[in-house]
Amino acid sequence: MSTLTVTPAPAAEVPRGLVNPLYVQLDIRRVLRNRRTLVFTLVMPVVFYFSFGASQPGADAKAYVMLSFAVYGAMVAATSVGASVAVERASGWSRQLRLTPMRPATYVASKVIAAASIAVIPVAVELVIGAATGARMRASAWVVGGLVAWIGSLVFAALGLAIGYLVPSENAMQVMGPVLALLALLGGLFVPLSIFGHTLQTVASFTPAYGVGVLAHWQLSHDGSFVGAIANLVVWTAVFGAGAALLFRRDTGRV
Amino acid sequence: MEMSTPAAPATTTDPGAVPTVAPPAIAIESLHKRFGQVSAVDGLDLVVRPGEVVAFLGPNGAGKTSTIDVVLGLSQPTSGSVSVYGTSPRDAVAHGWVSAVMQSGGLLKDLTVRETVQMTASLFARTQPVDVVLDRAGITAIADRRVGKCSGGEQQRLRFAMALLPDPRLLVLDEPTTGMDVEGRRAFWGAIRDDARRGRTVVFATHYLEEADTYADRIVLVAHGKVVADGTPSQIKALSSGRLVRATWPGAHLADLDGLPGVDDLELNGDQVVVHANDSDAVARFLLTRTPATDLEITARGLEDAFVSLTSATTSEVSR
After folding, report:
1. Fewer beta carbons below 10 Å: N end or C end of chain B?
2. Chain A residues in contact with B168 (beta carbon < 8 A)
3. What ipTM was estimated for this complex?
């Protein structure tokens, strides 16, 4: 008795392709209108750089701090875009989307692309300001550092998505702000990990911002373990991605 | 009230007459929806034919929204079956055959009105042009306004514009005018009514009788999760209009009352006569002057009374 009328193959009339460019474009525009997000992803990393980086004596020390805050800005940006699903669930937008043929995978893909698009901004801004204030390093260090800061931040897009599906409120980012600051600290982005004791350093090397931090700085200073950093990045991407997928499935299953 | 009301005096749906070639817009069969111990929908049957404008009328908590959620594929029935144009609700949504205007939520405050419609349009393979639906919903003038700055009525017309995008065969509205002022309500229904003239099937939930009466061809009265009456607006209104005249009349001859004008319904419980009539004065005059009836009492009947009596009638039927 508990069956719906089943018809073969939902010949859904969906636009082709996984990615919906117009949807992504408007989603990005929304993020750019959100003043709080812009303060946390753009203004704060820049202020941090001027406070702690531009004052450094050496050109490569400036560059080091610049890359740290590029990573930090990108991780905050990616997390907040991912976590915006919490807002969209709370406001009923996700429910509204279920009244359209949009595939859930398209929704997630849109968020990841929007996260990547937004995350590139703080990276670019940090590098430009760094260059303008005397940060100097090899050309390859600029390219690799910038790309790693940007692409590595997608780990945090996955974290944001997981949080967005876990926290049923609009305030996901208020929780995540301090958490991200702590992760950045443990990832060696705010202060060198060498000031910590041995145990804390070891623990820190297992936290999610550590891998991307080490890799972003790799061309500049071979701190830490390259293989360990790669492993860190891969494992955390897998963990957050799986968490997001699981929570996402629970959410859509509930309908 | 001690009187027992006839269960469904105004049934226009004849189940035997349904099998036509086109599938019904909505076919619901003994739908049950339970949330834990609470039974929100409790054996609801309903067939809506293409082109009908149906009001789903009932008090809060009658099960209207739960039923609509199942029709839209937003929730799964506990038991029973629901089909929309002969297919599952999810399929009908995927085809753009059905869309909905929900009561609240579902909007992003930081987009403009036009962007919201554009964003929604991008999700369908084929849609009506954005400008057309904005115009039809009467929100062209506020297209560039942020959604967060729109009034409740404007937001509701925006939801309506979004719902029009796939040019659906069936439009479902869940209490669409809740919280709107009179002006907003009128503008909203004006837009809906213009649209329904084009032959779209419309089902709307409401707890306002006037709204159901003014805009629907058919009213389905829902209480406690089931349909308690189903008929034209005038049939349903008759349930709530008029008065009840009650009197004690030992050895009553009900046949004597047959000729009186405006008598809808008669009942006899022991010595108690209950007359449901539009012209209660005529009934009272007759009872007091031409019969030995005493203890005469006249009470008005509102829709709430109709709900209550219809509901208690069905409930007692079930518990028997």
Report:
1. C
2. none
3. 0.84
